[in-house]
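Homework help board

Subject: predicted structure for assignment chain

Our instructor gave us this sequence and asked us to write out the predicted structure in token form, then describe one feature. I got the tokens but I'm not sure how to describe them. Can anyone check?
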Amino acid sequence: MKVSQLTERLNEMGVAREVYSINSVEYPNEAYSIFWNGSEWQVYYSERGKKRGIKKFLDESKACEHFLKQISRM
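My token output:
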């Protein structure tokens, strides 16, 4: 899966837009995020402007899988 497909998949899952962020440079409050920093994918939970539980991936598909797994646990 590619990041470009995530929004469609999240909509299919019925996930509210407020609980996730895709490639945003801002840190959303209390949301799961996936972000390409130029050299790696980062998947994390953003809380009070801080990244929590950061996982790093070189493979976009693996980052997307991890992101979806985190979202589905909500």
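Reply (TA_rk): Your tokens look well-formed. For the description, you could write something like this. The radius of gyration is 11 Å. That's the kind of observation they're looking for.
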